[in-house]
Design a protein that fits this description.
Blueprint: E1 2-7, E2 10-13, E3 18-26, E4 31-39, E5 46-51, E6 57-59, E7 67-72, E8 77-82, E9 91-99, E10 105-108, E11 112-117
Parallel strand pairs: 2-11
Antiparallel strand pairs: 1-3, 3-8, 4-5, 4-9, 5-6, 7-8, 9-10, 9-11
């Protein structure tokens, strides 16, 4: 199994920046891709950014041009650089791993809270 631990969330003003980190441990070989999701109060969890199995980054329309997903394979860590933050970016952000066996995002971290104040 893979374990995921997110960090880097916090309180930031509109227009500010944060960088989230997701450290993976355990059976890294069992995953094919990583992603960031978020869930705001009263809303469904939504995809923010992900890597395809080939390594291409994909972004939700709402964050294109503002967020950047990256990874450090040597550290087994995925990052989400968030710039020009807006109040609507306020949410609990989760890291997720896509299983090689099921091809589903079925491993999740505990989440890290991002709050953008206006």
């Amino acid at each position: 199994q893979v374990q995921l631990v997110e960090s880097g969330g916090g309180l930031v003003q509109v227009g500010g920046s944060l960088r989230l980190s997701c450290a993976a441990s355990g059976s890294i070989f069992s995953t094919v891709a990583m992603a960031w999701y978020r869930q705001a109060p009263g809303k469904q969890r939504e995809l923010v950014a992900r890597f395809t199995p080939g390594g291409t980054p994909i972004y939700a329309d709402s964050v294109k041009g503002r967020f950047t997903i990256s990874r450090d394979n040597a550290k087994n860590t995925v990052y989400l650089q968030m710039n020009s933050l807006k109040p609507e970016d306020t949410a609990l952000y989760y890291c997720s791993a896509r299983s090689r066996a099921t091809m589903a995002y079925d491993t999740w971290g505990q989440g890290t809270q991002v709050t953008v104040s206006s």
